[in-house]
Amino acid sequence: MPLPSKNTKPKLQDLILKGDHKHTMIVRHYNNLTVAKAVTSTSPSIYRLSVQYFTHEKVVSGISKLLLATAMYFDENSLTAPQADIVAEELLAHPESLKLEDLVVICKELKEQSVYSKLTPSKILKHVAEYRKRRMQTAIKLQLNKTLDEKQEANIDERMRKSIRQIDDSNRIISEKHVEIRKYYK
Fold first, then answer.
1. Domain of 30?
2. Taking the model in full, what pTM does it have?
3. pLDDT digits 0-9 by tens, 165-175
């Protein structure tokens, strides 16, 4: 896979799952991620990546590499490759699957905390559980702000037009389906 030019920002899933890029590429391009940016990102969840786009093993390997790169900031022998694989499997098995952006934010937060001298699977999973709660609160807050912003618009007709999802030629489609169905009545 060719390296992206300096002007283009590579996709996160390409950096983590496809390429053999160094962790510094992720830090360089995605160090400004926040919980709010991770929530609003349009990328698929890691579970969906493992089912639809890549193999399960490829996603586990990518997540493990990300965790092992984070472990370099702690004591030597902090997190082993088999432990990172187990944590990756745990993350994929959870019904509320995270996105790769969430994992980058989690790793960034783990590196910036001064309370851990050694990174273990239990500390990672505990931090992920706390992150999920904050992520849910952020998602609710963002949705409430979006709803309030929409309600601030003075024109009710414009609001209705934006909120109702109706196909422009829905009457024509309904009529065609009605004709198709009527032929089976005889």
1. 12-182
2. 0.71
3. 555 566 677 77
